[in-house]
Amino acid sequence: MADVSRFEELVLPHLDAAYNLARWLARDPHDAEDVVQDACIRALKYVGSLHGTNPRAWFLAIVRNAFYDWLGRNRPAEIVDVDDDTIEATVDQAAVDPQQSAIRSAELRTLSDAMAALPLQFREVLVLRELEDLSYKEIARVADIPVGTVMSRLARARELLRRSPLLRAIGGQFAGSER
Amino acid sequence: MNCAEATTLLSAYADGETGGLQRYSIRRHLRACRAFASRHEELVAQRGQIRAEAQRYSAPPELRARVLATLDAVRASGASRAPARPTNDRWRWLTGGALAGCAATVLAWVVGTAVLDWRAGENLALEAVTSHVRATVGDRLIQVASSDQHTVKPWLSARLDYSPPVRDLANEGFALIGARLDALEQRPVATLVYRYRKHTIDVFVRPEPTPSPSSPLRPVRGFNVARATGSGMNWLAVSDVEPDTLSEFVQRLARPESSP
Asked: Which of residues 45-64 of A touch B (CB under 8 A)?
């Protein structure tokens, strides 16, 4: 029971952040809800042992773990364990909601579409950095990777986004400004 | 530092995550190399665009309601019985796991955190964060909703024995959205509410009892707290906005207005 008040005090205020991360990782509102529900249960279970760390980063790490477990159960094919360097600057077309795309014309593609199309391990560091304002050290802890990898993945994510064909379609927001 | 070396560090530099020596070398290279400088500008623009335009998703109300319902169920049933009427099967299954976990950790929690919390309870920053959380989770964040300082200021003055300076800094990205009356250290305090991008910032403003040194900001429970003294007031800002931004903002508020 005591954990409930502790959960309400420390974890619940970060529910939006949790959902935002899950939504960006899963790229689907319902799947994101499942992931966050699972994460809440885990957080409720372990919140008693939360001391001295940033509760938001702590909760986001749980959300991320819940997401990868969910991914393993539901879309195991998406777990690609490859070296960062071998990932080509491909855009995941599946990321762009076909229904939305049909409604929208190409020039209405947004920055969010381009970000959603980034490969998972780049998407997650970019969201943690730019939307959740976490430091490299916190991202390293949440994503369970060394700080050096956070740095290189973020650089790579920004480069991929810069060259994204989805953005080029709307006139190359970043890359094509001189053309 | 050559251009290739500088380029690998550019992204970390833009995040303020490079060491002093690296930062110095990159700045030198920025002045020396036009191509590198324009690459840097592009990156800064990209970051700005992401922060301004990328979708930030909020938890849907149904999700929040389900979480709250589960908490109620766990609380009502104590740590040993099953929760009453969960909303769906999967949720019930998950809740069952949580209950077992709760039972195991209740004792540790009671002994461990009560002591910690009492000690930290003396802390003003913690109190401010608690007020901020209580206000944002509930729906009493704002009692007077206005971006007009001439509406907000009299509203506060009428309810307090002091009159805090109120300024809208929307043109600098910090839009005043209203105010409320809150309490710190058992005394009513003017609380200005600002919106920065999609973040909420609470600013607690009190008359300055003694000229206190403005303490450095510190994170409390995942929120950042920044303080400043100025214009005869103590200013304390709480938000999940980046520490540097929050600190600059609160110092900006504390600085007296230059023009009359």
From this structure: 45-49, 51, 54-59
